[in-house]
Structures are given as C-alpha cells and as structure tokens.
Amino acid sequence: MQIGIVGLPFSGKSTLFQTITKTHIDPAALAKSETHQAMIKVPDERLDKLTDIFQPKKKVNATIDVIDVVGLKKGDSGSIQFTSNFLSKVKTNDALIQVVRLFENESVPHPEGSVNMMRDIEEFETEFILSDMVIVEKRIASIKKQILKIKDEQLKRELPVLEKCYELLQNETPLRETHLRDDELKLLRSYQLLSAKPMLIALNLDENQVNDVDKYLNDLARKKLGSNTKALAFFGKIEMEMSELSDEDARVFMEEYGIKESALNNIIREAYELQGLQSFFTVGEDECRAWTIKKGMNAQEAAGEIHTDFFKKFIRAEVVHYDDFIADGSFAKAKENGHWRLEGKEYVVRDGDIISIRHG
Question: What's the pLDDT tens digit per position in 263-321?
C-alpha cells in the first residue's frame, strides 16, 4: 500500500513525512522540491507480544510506503498552482493524507494569507474533482464513438458508470463518498481518479492548541467527513522533536503535553481503516510476521499473500484468534478450549487471526 502526503506549502507536510518515517531531509533537498519516499513498519503490539512468546530469529512487521508529494507552487497571480505534474504524482497513491495547517507563525506566513481549515480542504477537493471531470468527460466521449463502430459489452457496462460519476462530480461530490458498488469501482480503477481515493485529513496544530483538538475535529466532522474521509490532529513541531528521542523520553514528553498517542500509530491505524485493511499473523521459531490483507478476504486468498503456491495448493487453514491464544496461553490449551480449529478456503479471515496453512 502506498500513501501520499499532500498539503499547501508551509502546512507541515514534510514535517509529518519525516516524523512518521523517522527520516531527516536536508533543507537543501526540501528547497529543491524533491520527491521523498520511505517504507515504514506498521506498529503492532500484538506482533510484539507474539515475538516475546516465540522468540523467533526474525520479526517482520507489515509495511506501508509513504510519499511526500511535491509540486505545488505559487503562481504569478499569488494563487496556488495544481500543476499536471503534481496531480500525476498524486494519482499513483492508494490513499492520501492531506495536511492542513491550523497554527499561526508570523515568520512563516500561510500561503493564502490566513489560516482557514475549510478553505484549505476545499481547495484540494475542488482541484481533484475538476481533474476527475476532465478524465471522465473525455472517456465518455471516446466510448460513445467506439460503441458506434464496434459491439463491446465491456464498453456498454462502463458507459453508465462513467455517466453516473460525471453527474456526481458536477454536483461537487467526491467519488470516495458515493458508495459505488464493487463492480463499478473495479471499472474505474484504471483511471486513478483523485476524488475516489480514501482521504485522511491531518490537522497540524502547535503546543498552544492542545486543548482545541476536539473543537476542530468536531467542527470538521459536522461539515465534511464521510465514510471514506477521516480526520485526526497532530502536533508537527512536538512530534518532530519526539521522533529524535528515546522511547522512554518520548513517553515523558507526550505526558507533559497531554498527547495520548503518537502521530505514527494514529495515522497508520486510520490509514488501515480507510483502506479496509487488516492483519493476520504467522508464528514460529524462525519468524513471526504480520501480513496485510483486505477485510473480507478468505483463507485461500490470505494464503496466497504468503505464497502463490499456498493459494493453488490450499487444503486447510489452522486458525486461532490472537485474543484467544493469549487468554489460553498456548496452542495446546487453545485446542483444548475449542479456540484452535481447522477452516476451509471460504473462511473469512478476521483481524488478529494466527494462521498456519496446510497445502499440497
């Protein structure tokens, strides 16, 4: 999975990228507007606990690729330019994090002249919708021409879906909030439509706004949020300082400022939920690993994530849920209590399942 971080200049976008990836970008590189990408491990206390129990040679977390999407500039008129180069970089991501600045800093003025949460959010939404409208409109015109020449059932199925999307976009409705059916989403996937991508809005506050978090989030929830648009708050400057501390010092730092959870843990959890992702585990003396799959995947599909041969030659899955295993204390006790079981290929994997695949 790849997540792109977007935001207006001086919003704290690169600060968030450096914080969650635990990297340091040289100021000279930032000035050149270079794209930065890093792979981060998904923190999971369950995997940590399983590693403590099994003492494997290796622990492997699930991972996510994060990109600091660059390319936004101020034009000669003073307005922000959403260039085709910037939009093309955004398209390659599975989900987006939009960093929205809520802090004041006279030495680094807001590019629009003032801090305004809804204006900044709507600016991106409008540009994404307009970009999608251009793509959808061109495709509709192309399909109508092709249908006159050839009989193609695929095109006939695609046309009404695109026309439905175009009408929604005309009404300024982002496609992520339209509850399109799975078959409709599949038809649209190749177009990489921007307003269809799950969006996490990250509000960047300073240390003087710790007590204002709920107010901003509640205001945003009333006006903007839907099933595929989530929001959270983080403290860019504080989080950046914490990322350079030891775990123990960081905990003390968080307590001083009343921060309950680090940006990394919060953002990954929300990103997982937005994408409809979950984790299952494989354990043993050699390795304890977290595997990322889509919610609703069955045991055979999950087995295919481990190895393609496991999908083709799937026989059964040995399954016990993490919570049951921890409560029972061992696989033997889990079997005795009826928590360990054999499941067929149609078994729908749950988040936190510990699985061993039997295959031919």
Answer: 777 887 888 778 889 999 999 999 999 999 999 999 999 999 999 999 999 999 999 99
Beta bridge partners of 314: 359
Q: Are strands 95-101 and 199-204 parallel, antiparallel or unpaired?
A: parallel
Closest C-alpha among 42, 41, 87, 92 to residue 67: 92
The CATH classification number of 2-43+59-113+197-274 equals 3.40.50.300
Joined tokens for residue 330: 């061992």
Contact criterion met (CB below 8 Å) for 95 and 274? yes
Q: How far apart are CA 259 and CA 261, in angstroms?
A: 6
CATH code for the domain defined by 296-359: 3.10.20.30
**Which sequence spans correspond to the domains of the chain?**
2-43+59-113+197-274, 128-195, 296-359
- Could you identify the residue written with the tokens 């960047």? 204
Alpha-carbon distances, residue 183 vs 161, 174, 187, 196 (angstroms): 10, 18, 6, 14
What span, in angstroms and rounded, lies between the C-alpha atoms of 299 and 297?
Answer: 7
pLDDT more than 90, % of the chain: 59
Q: Give the integer Cα–Cα distance in Å for 15 and 20.
A: 9
The 10s digit of each residue's pLDDT in 311-323 is: 999 999 999 999 9
Strands 314-321 and 353-359: antiparallel
- What pLDDT is attached to residue 33? 62
d(CA 248, CA 139): 55
